[in-house]
Amino acid sequence: MSEVEETINRIRTHKGVTGIVIVNSEGVPIRSTFDNKHTLQYAALINQLATKARSVVRDLDPQNDLTFLRVRSKKHEIMVAPDREYILIVIQDPNADQGS
Questions:
Q1: What's residue 2's pLDDT?
Q2: Paired strand residues for 90
Q3: Nearest to 86 by CA among 38, 27, 44
Q4: Which CA distances in Å does 43 have to 3, 47, 51, 59, 72?
Q5: How many angstroms separate the most distant Cα atoms in the chain?
């Protein structure tokens, strides 16, 4: 099993994780645990959000860069780890630890 597969499997075992999407630098999904519809939706929208967030961070301080982005709503928590070549997106249920 590849290192990427091992990492995905390790992340999936965390409580509340509902899915993982990995997109390349162009925003094209290359790995996902979701169906095609949700994969494309998360890939497109989160790629735009991460690009905008990175732009804001750099506008505030040109020597800085975005390393992690976390968005929490009532139903989901979306964690984004951008890199030069890939963006890792993890979606989890923020209420999983509360037994709901």
A1: 84
A2: 20, 79
A3: 27
A4: 22, 6, 12, 24, 17
A5: 43
Rounded distance between C-alpha atoms, residue 97 and residue 69, angstroms: 21
**Long-range contact list for 37-44, CB < 8 A, 24+ apart?**
42/78, 42/89, 42/91, 43/89
Mean pLDDT of the chain, nearest integer? 92
Of 75, 79, 6, nearest to 46 by C-alpha is: 79
Which residue(s) pair with 81 in the sheet?
88
Contact 45, 29 (CB under 8 A): no
**Residue with the two structure tokens 């990175």:** 54
Q: Does the structure show a pLDDT above 50 at 99?
A: yes
Range 50-74 average pLDDT: 96
